[in-house]
Design brief:
The chain has helices spanning 3-13, 30-34, 75-89, 102-108, 115-130, 173-180, 198-211, 222-229, 235-248, 301-305, and strands at 17-18, 27-29, 49-53, 56-61, 97-100, 132-135, 146-149, 153-158, 164-170, 185-187, 218-221, 254-261, 266-272, 288-289, 295-296, 313-315, 344-347. It is α+β, with helices and mostly antiparallel strands. It has two domains: 3-187, no CATH class; 197-347, no CATH class. A hairpin with a 5-residue loop joins strand 8 and strand 9 (164-170).
Amino acid sequence: MSPRHITRIEREQLELFRALPGDLAPRDAQDLMAYPFFSLAKSHRTIPIDFHMNDVAIRVEAVAEYGMATIWDADVLIWAASQIVEARDAGLRTSRLMAATPREILTFIGRGTSVRDYHRLKAALDRLQSTTVATTLRQTSERRMHRFSWINEWTERADASGRSDGIALILPDWFYRAVLDDALVLTIDREYFRLTGGLERWLYRLVRKHAGQQRRGWRFDFQNLYVKSASLSPFKRFAFELRGLAHRQALPGFRLVVERETGGRELLAFSRARFSTGPCGQAVSPGVPSGTNYSVRSGTGAACQQEPKWSNSSIGSDASEPSNLESNLKESNLSVVGDRRNRWKTSRSAP
């Protein structure tokens, strides 16, 4: 049976869910926030993501024609998750087959509604449909792999007169089941859509997933973050950008602090903040620590253009609060949990 015939049968068996109107709260799937599923670069990526951590394996592959789905393309999945959760909570029937106008999707994710924006949305849908994922995550056995694309198919709809009536798409069952599970969905700050960098978008989602309501916040060392990002940038550049994000306090609702242990290892500590941050170049109040021995205001002009000239505060092994281990132990700071050898593995190719 041909793939086209299979998708036609699937479409006929699903009940159409029409997107809800109104200003819905953005929701994100925790699995997508915690693991590397998307390219962090706007450039055309075809190098696969090959990630292994304990019993979790993820393999993401792209086709040369479209490239890998990016973290900006994932905004479409955030829109879909928000729609499904809102409808479910209202007692409405949901479906993997969803219909909406491009304007509804673009407005929700904070984009423009010009012809160019419509074309970019269609390109994002093509990447989401052509990117394939194989993962053991949420499988009954670590040897079993679930394979899917972020969108099974999408099509432009037309009314009886042949005029455009929006788009329809079919979500994969793996994603749909996660969204229907309350324990696997988190509300995110709408300011997330204003974050322009791939690294800061990825970091916000990871921080939101881990920090939560943790009283002591959370810590990751830079090397672990590098592995979890699946970034193709050299580690030195990755670390430089992390320090810059902490210096600017670039993530809405969270405080970032870079700590340096006596042996030289750098940690990124993060916790909930009572203030809101803005985009680079906009000052916020009050002053916030950025891993230096003095307080700075975020959004300073120099931090947007060049590496901040500061010395990270050095800490002894017992000088800072320990990493919070009350949540997912498998994703905790490796300096506290388990043996560091062979714990984190990834296959990485140079761009």
